[in-house]
Design a protein that fits this description.
mainly alpha; 2 domains; Tetracycline Repressor, domain 2; about 230 residues; Arc Repressor Mutant, subunit A; 10 helices
């Protein structure tokens, strides 16, 4: 199993940078991405986004490539220009999720604030990322369905998340913004709350993703302040 240094930065696999949309997808390759001028990256992003939606709706194991091709309104052989198999699709989806939550770490670390305020930045940004289709798929599908080699590729990044939050808690204790606590249990609780959101959050509800994120943090803030 690979290891990662505490100060390492997550290095997702090569992946085209594509816009992240929290709203349900309405774009379908067969109906809207047809012109020769469309870049391959847009088609691949359409595949990944639609696959993530299907995995979220039906589950990874109950979704077939035929289901994906039908949803995209293309033939199954057309998919193989952009993906190898379901394992490759999920790996790329999880790498996209990494691209979406990595800024939460960067913004917190570069803020120059105390430990508690850094934790607020991270929790609010990360929670919002978990309401998107890729973040939700990261939680609902997880690393379990991946082949061992694909799982090993991503494991260091997810370990880094745990290390990062524990570091913020330790920093807060040292600077006085956070009371002494069990950083392991606290970190597990924080991620448990943020990841559970992916199971019940629905766009268009009473609260926006940002408002929910702020309320999630306020719960932990009450218990962490000295």
């Amino acid at each position: 199993m690979k290891t990662v240094k505490a100060d390492a930065k997550p290095q997702p696999a090569n992946f085209d940078s594509s816009p992240s949309l929290a709203e349900p997808s309405t774009s379908r390759w067969g109906s809207e991405i047809q012109s020769r001028d469309e870049q391959g990256g847009l088609k691949r992003f359409a595949i990944l986004r639609t696959a993530a939606e299907l995995f979220n709706e039906r589950g990874f194991y109950k979704t077939s490539l035929n289901d994906l091709a039908k949803r995209l309104n293309v033939t199954k052989p057309s998919l193989y220009y952009y993906i190898k198999n379901k394992d490759d699709i999920l790996l790329q989806i999880l790498n996209q999720a990494v691209l979406e939550f990595t800024p939460a770490m960067t913004l917190a670390e570069d803020s120059g604030l105390n430990g508690l305020e850094k934790l607020k930045i991270f929790i609010t940004q990360y929670t919002v990322a978990m309401t998107g289709v890729f973040g939700k798929c990261m939680v609902l599908s997880g690393l379990g369905p991946l082949e061992p080699s694909s799982r090993d590729e991503l494991t260091p990044t997810f370990r880094l998340l745990d290390t990062f939050v524990r570091g913020l808690l330790d920093e807060g204790v040292k600077d006085g913004s956070i009371q002494p606590c069990d950083t392991k249990i606290t970190t597990f609780s924080i991620f448990g709350a943020m990841h559970w959101l992916a199971r019940w959050y629905r766009p268009g509800g009473e609260l926006s993703a940002q408002e929910i994120a702020e309320r999630v943090f306020s719960i932990f803030e009450s218990g962490l302040k000295p």
